[in-house]
Design brief:
By secondary structure, the chain is α/β, with parallel strands linked by helices. Helices cover 36% and strands 14% of the residues. The model has no long low-confidence stretch (mean pLDDT 91).
Length: 247
């Protein structure tokens, strides 16, 4: 298997999980993964939309698998503190999934104290929203020096430490494609060893054929939702017809 194409849809994601199971893999959390076992760690970094993440979480519940969803605090693209954001987090948690912090360390580069404080504060926000402890952190667009670092952040483990990144397999759909080959072709999988599979819900949200089409579709949905909210807030507002220009 050599294809790299994404986005796909949730049916394709379910088929991928079934393929792993047919190879003898079992889904495990970060705390339980063993390098020499056929363990599959399901990680989701939520970069664009909590709504798409909640839909993926519900599909995974139907597959009887538990994943960990890493959520940003202070993100410009979604707000976990809004009513819609809280509702999405509740949907994810009710499906039995863990919620961690997706942390952007770039504003604190070189300032260890500020880095620790920000991570701790953002973990506390997620803990307050969900009612569950944040046990692990993932980095958003991590700097090279963070990859493979064994140092804990805010007293918590992170998804790029050696036990989860170099001592087991790692495969990601970053930017909407399997940039390093399909996960079933990964050397760790061929050897039936553990692997961390990072997927981003946006790339599996619908039937878009390219990453640009997936983002265009999300943007259009958000514009419609915003227009509806404007109309609810201002009764005299008549929203214009919204349609993105297509090439």
């Amino acid at each position: 298997m050599t294809h790299r194409a994404l986005p796909a849809d949730l049916d394709a994601y379910a088929s991928l999980i079934d393929d792993f199971r047919s190879l003898g893999y079992s889904v495990q959390g970060f705390q339980d993964v063993r390098p020499d076992q056929p363990h599959l760690v399901l990680r989701h970094d939520v970069d664009f939309s909590l709504t798409e993440a909640a839909a993926m979480a519900e599909r995974e519940r139907g597959l009887d698998v538990a994943a960990i969803y890493f959520v940003q605090v202070g993100c410009d693209l979604y707000n976990p503190l809004s009513p819609a954001g809280r509702a999405a987090l509740d949907r994810i948690a009710k499906c039995g999934h863990e919620i961690g912090l997706h942390f952007d360390a770039s504003p604190y580069d070189g300032n260890t104290g500020a880095l620790e404080t920000a991570a701790q504060e953002q973990c506390a926000v997620i803990e307050q929203l969900t009612g569950y402890p944040v046990r692990i952190i993932s980095f958003h667009k991590p700097a090279r020096h963070l990859l493979g670092s064994a140092k804990r952040l805010a007293g918590r483990r992170h998804a790029y430490e050696p036990a989860f990144f170099s001592e087991i397999g790692y495969c990601s759909d970053s930017r909407g494609e399997w940039r390093h080959g399909h996960p079933l072709d990964h050397p760790a999988v061929l050897a039936r060893r553990a692997i961390q599979l990072l997927t981003h819900p946006i790339w599996w949200a619908g039937s878009a054929k390219t990453p640009k089409a997936a983002l265009d579709a999300l943007l259009e949905r958000k514009l419609h939702a915003d227009a509806d909210e404007y109309a609810r807030t201002h009764q005299d507002y008549d929203p214009p017809k919204i349609e993105l220009a297509r090439p």
